[in-house]
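Title: Request for sanity check on Protein PIGBOS1 prediction

Description:
We are preparing a figure and want to confirm that the structure record we downloaded matches what your pipeline produces today. Could someone re-run it with the sequence below and paste the raw structure tokens into this thread? We only need the token string, no images.
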Amino acid sequence: MFRGRLPFSQIVFATLLGVAGGVYVFKPVFEPLAVRKTSEQQNQNVPEKQKETD
């Protein structure tokens, strides 16, 4: 099947390519969670304004 051994550089390249591809594919899964956390933090830092009626 394989005529020889794969060089270490090709194994490292394939590993990095696989990790980068996995991050690219699953990025939309984690993005909404990060956006939700930052919006919650912004809401906590802004004090609520009370309505003034004249």
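Thanks, this matches our download. The longest helix spans residues 8-45.
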